[in-house]
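Q: Okay, next protein. This is Thioeseterase from Rhodosalinus halophilus. I've checked the sequence twice, so it should be correct. Can you predict the 3D structure?
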Amino acid sequence: MYPFVRMAKELWAARGLDPLPLTGTHVSHHRCWPWDLDIWMELNNGRALTLYDLGRIPLAMRTGLVGALRRNRWGLTMAGASVRYRRRIRAFQRIEMRSRAVTWDARFIYLEQSMWLAGGVCAGHVLYRSAVTDRNGIVPPETVLTAMGQDPAPPPVPDWIAAWIAAEDARPWPPMQAPDTEADASLARRAAP
């Protein structure tokens, strides 16, 4: 189940915090509860992605993005993610989450989030590309930033994000199409002894 109560708590707490520019870092603190665990008694990888919402949505609120979405009747969606899991998060461990936008291009806003354990140990990191949408499709980030009252010029794209964007552009879509059975049969006949 989605952590609605935890999200309400985070949104309530973020109301009293100073506004941030879109590239500002929102820091929040969370706990890994028993219902967040998988059968190996560690934070479930899918649940980790859900918990990242607990940092990302308050970030959107503090930057003014939520207000711009409401005023313009826009939506917000995730268009891709690249995740690294590096350390196990066990039941009752406290997590510090850091969330920020890094840059944007003509279609997407690129966000990064990380989970940190005691002693400054990074347990995981995710890079998202997010899109603001309306009934006609994707709203250009330049339009979104202007509606937020922020500078629409994007920060430089770090090399590692540029490489991910290039890899995503090269990735086939739709994926895993059904094979052409006639062509496959022809190849099989030629390969047969």
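A: Here is a summary of the prediction. The radius of gyration is 20 Å. Residues 45-63 form the longest helix (19 residues).
Q: Noted. On to the next one.
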